[in-house]
Design goal:
Layout lengths: L2 E6 L15 H13 L3 E6 L15 H6 L1 H5 L17 E4 L5 H4 L4 H12 L3 E5 L22 E2 L4 H6 L10 H7 L3 E2 L9 E4 L2 E4 L5 H12 L1
Parallel strand pairs: 1-2, 1-3, 3-4, 4-8, 5-6
Antiparallel strand pairs: 7-8
Helix pairs in contact: 1-8
């Protein structure tokens, strides 16, 4: 089976200090789907250590039980810097507001994603995690997303979440400004898009659909 590197946010706060981090569902649902299908999943984070989880994504008792294997992986993660694209078939970044802070400006992470992309390997993310692409330009200054079709958390969803003034930029606006072809569904409904080796999803509700596209791409 395929080997997949998950890279999770390490950022625990919004601009005003409100706690945030990983949106748990966007990690746990794909993790369980891929691991159950027999894929080898390695969980890492931006700086390593315990991954902060957005309090608003706290699991129910039923979810705690269903996601136990995934949740256990959050306690002591290695940094993504310990790994290379050569070791894996795909990279996946789940969202949460934390990703808007520690992924768009991380050149080492960008270099890793470019290595996956240039090797024709799957690059995938969901919800806020496509923010990582907002800072990615190649050696010629071309934005990573220019001309590529994708989905990501929308401006209207950010407004509904009451967070438009609490993030460094609006994700939908940033990606479109960089030349992405942004596709969306209604707020809080599933939308997953595959454009070649790039797989993206709009919101937490898209996590399962992104996992399915990942499995198809790796089959």
């Amino acid at each position: 089976m395929s080997k997949i590197l998950f890279v999770l946010t390490s950022n625990p706060f919004m601009l005003d200090g409100t706690p945030t981090g990983l949106w748990l569902e966007e990690f746990a649902v794909p993790y369980m789907a891929l691991a159950t299908a027999g894929h080898d999943v390695t969980v890492s984070s931006v700086v390593g250590g315990q991954v902060p989880v957005d309090p608003n994504s706290a699991p129910s008792e039923e979810q705690k039980e269903a996601w136990a294997a995934a949740i256990a992986k959050l306690e002591n993660t290695p940094s993504f810097e310990a790994f290379s694209a050569e070791e894996f078939d795909a990279i996946y970044m789940p969202g949460g507001h934390g990703t808007v802070f520690d992924m768009p400006f991380n050149k080492k992470l960008h270099d890793l994603i470019f290595a996956f992309d240039k090797a024709g390997k799957v690059v995938s993310s969901v919800c806020h995690a496509p923010a990582v692409f907002g800072g990615m330009r190649d050696e010629n200054g071309l934005p990573f997303v220019k001309g590529r079709t994708l989905a990501a958390f929308t401006n209207s969803e950010e407004e509904a979440a009451g967070a438009t003034k609490n993030v460094p930029f609006l994700l939908e606006t940033r990606l479109i400004e960089l030349g992405a072809i942004h596709q969306r569904s209604d707020d809080w409904t599933p939308k997953a898009v595959r454009d070649g080796n790039l797989i993206t999803g709009q919101n937490p509700q898209s996590s399962a659909a992104v996992a399915e596209l990942l499995k198809e791409a790796l089959a």
